[in-house]
Design brief:
Number of helices of chain A: 14
Number of strands of chain B: 3
Structural class of chain B: alpha+beta
Radius of gyration of chain A: 22 Å
Mean pLDDT of chain B: 91
Helix content of chain B: 40-55%
CATH superfamily of the largest domain in chain A: Type I PLP-dependent aspartate aminotransferase-like (Major domain)
CATH class of the largest domain in chain A: Alpha Beta
Strand content of chain B: 15-25%
Number of domains of chain B: 1
Strand content of chain A: 15-25%
Largest sheet of chain A: 7 strands, mixed
Largest sheet of chain B: 3 strands, antiparallel
Largest interface: A-B, 20 and 22 residues
Strand order of the largest sheet of chain A: 2-8-7-6-5-3-4
Strand order of the largest sheet of chain B: 1-2-3
Oligomer: heterodimer
Number of domains of chain A: 2
CATH topology of the largest domain in chain A: Aspartate Aminotransferase, domain 2
Shape of chain B: globular
CATH topology of chain B: Sufe protein. Chain: A
Radius of gyration of chain B: 14 Å
Chain lengths: 403, 140
């Protein structure tokens, strides 16, 4: 793959940084920054309602972004693409809109134990409100969920199952297509959190058979504040609006309203056109390089880091012992050193990594670790970043007075 | 952050804490939580006639929260509640970057944490033990 670092202005501003926190957010290429700036410079108006040329331009920019997203995840219709702020808002939308309308006491919600808080807390809230029981699908210590585990966990009462395609802690790819099939045989819907998969591997919602898919733009080179909810049309049609206000109505009287058609029913208020245009540019950017190149590059770098880390005493990798089961994410601990102190030492050496519970506290409790450190990759990383990371990792215990 | 941020005082209190243990006979205890990382430190004090005669902490924390709690206990054991409350306010002032040199002297070894003021992400770690102390003093 060609060297892409020069596409990202942040690396000109911070030439020495090894940025290894892309699972939290990615850097933005010039192409994305230019597209968003171009929109605000030349096409900005309030879209969808304006009766003049500039507003039509803004509407086109926004709706073209929707078509780009539809094609990117292979949805059947652009009406199935709802723009939100981020994956968190998308998941909240499903829980509050679908959950409140469809769940009652005696029903069950099944959530994978490794879910990010954004795919757990909305379900906790809906469970409290509706009386539906919240249950967990547990994984092995390596982060593996088997089809057998899922079959056993489903009951006739399980109405919905929520799981990430790639866990933000393990980095492991879950067999979503098989899980969707098992769920549907049981009459259960499947919600897939794609925040860590959609930026890195080709995702085809029809092939996977998921009912809902949520992801964030900012983890895939787009600006912050734009996210996507994909939902199967029959489901979205029947769901009540999540937020209400402008742009999402057809006709309003003093007491009632009829709502706009999909997808506008779920996009209340003035939308984030600049963000959507940025996301469109990010999709074009990813496509210009191609997933063949991206996954090959990211997998090779992950394997390179993994092998070096395994050779360092007192470093414990969380999850699978195989590099190929880590999709650009390696979470670890160092014996005797608290993850926040590890992060501070990395920071001193200009290596940006994440420490804490990664918004997955129940998983950490389940694994019996207080907190962990995570390094995560994107297409702009190179071997030099990994070498800097590994060199610092080797010094952590000595610098904490342990060796 | 500089290379030597983890100075000898911090490293030493983290590796060889004097006050990390249970405290039988404690007259009060409180669990303080750092919401940004889930770390929890429980502070135990024995207070007799307004004087903190003994103290200890238990739980899991990072080097900064452990060392800060350990240094704090060194400083407050044997002092009155009012003196401990005064030191707590001085510590908070130091972390806020507003302390005078004279006040810094009063904090003795706790001054080793002065540079935390420049690391917003770690402020919660440094003040965890002190906030728990403040809670216990206010409660009495």
């Amino acid at each position: 793959m060609r060297n892409t670092k020069s596409d990202f202005p942040v690396f000109a501003a911070y030439p020495d940084i090894a940025y290894l926190d892309s699972a939290a957010t990615t850097q933005k290429p010039q192409q994305v920054l230019d597209a968003a700036a171009h929109y605000y410079r030349e096409e900005n108006a309030n879209p969808l309602r304006g009766l003049y040329d500039l507003s039509v331009k803004a509407t086109d920019a926004y709706e073209n972004a929707r078509i780009a997203v539809r094609d990117y995840i292979h949805a059947a219709s652009k009406r199935e693409i709802i723009f939100t702020r981020n994956a968190t808002e998308s998941l909240n939308l499903i829980a509050y809109s679908w959950g409140r309308a469809n769940l009652c006491a005696h029903d069950e919600i099944l959530v994978a134990i490794s879910e990010h808080h954004s795919d757990l807390l909305p379900w906790q809230a809906v469970s409290r409100e509706t009386g539906a029981k919240l249950r967990f699908l547990e994984c092995g210590k390596s982060g593996l969920y088997t089809e057998e585990d899922l079959r056993k966990a489903l009951t006739p009462e399980t109405k919905i199952f929520a799981i990430a395609q790639v866990s933000n802690v393990f980095g492991r790819l879950n067999p979503i297509r098989e899980f969707a099939e098992i769920c549907h045989k049981n009459g259960t819907l499947i919600v897939c959190d794609g925040a860590q998969s959609v930026p890195h591997i080709p995702v085809d919602v029809q092939e996977l058979g998921v009912d809902f898919l949520a992801f964030s733009g900012h983890k895939m080179y787009a600006p912050m504040g734009i996210g996507v909810l994909y939902g199967r049309r029959e489901l979205l049609e029947k769901m009540p609006p999540f937020l209400s206000g402008g742009e999402m109505i057809e006709y309003v009287t003093r007491e009632s309203a009829t709502f706009a058609e999909l997808p506008h029913k779920f996009e209340a208020g003035t939308v984030n056109v600049g963000g959507a245009v940025g996301l469109h540019a990010a999709i074009d950017y990813i496509r210009s390089i191609g997933f063949d190149e991206i996954t090959k590059h990211e997998n090779a770098l992950t394997a390179y880091a993994f092998e070096k880390m395994r050779g360092i005493p007192h470093v414990n990798i969380i999850g699978s012992e195989k590099a190929e089961a880590h999709l650009g994410i390696i979470t670890f601990t160092v014996d005797g050193v608290h993850p926040h102190d590890i992060a501070a030492i990395f920071d001193a050496d200009n290596v940006a990594i994440r420490a804490g519970h990664h918004c997955a506290q129940p998983l950490h409790q389940y694994l019996g670790v207080q907190s962990t450190v995570r390094m995560s990759l994107a297409l702009y990383n190179d071997e030099r970043d990994i070498d800097l990371f590994v060199n610092t990792l080797k010094t952590v215990r000595r610098r904490m007075g342990l060796e | 952050m500089s290379e030597n941020f983890y100075n000898e005082v911090l490293i030493d209190h983290n590796l060889h804490p004097q006050h990390l243990h249970e405290l039988p006979g404690a007259t009060c205890s409180h669990a303080g939580m750092n919401p940004s990382c889930g770390d929890e430190i429980t502070l135990h004090l024995t207070v007799q006639d307004d004087i903190i005669t003994d103290g200890a902490y238990t739980g899991v924390g990072c080097a900064i929260s452990n060392a800060s709690a350990d240094i704090m206990l060194d400083l407050i054991i044997g002092r009155t509640k009012a003196e401990a409350a005064h030191l707590t306010e001085l510590f908070m002032k130091m972390i806020g970057g507003e302390i005078t040199d004279a006040e810094l002297d009063e904090l003795e070894e706790a001054g080793a944490l002065q540079n935390i003021a420049k690391m917003p992400a770690r402020v919660k770690c440094a003040v965890l033990g002190w906030k728990t102390l403040r809670y216990l003093l206010d409660e009495q």
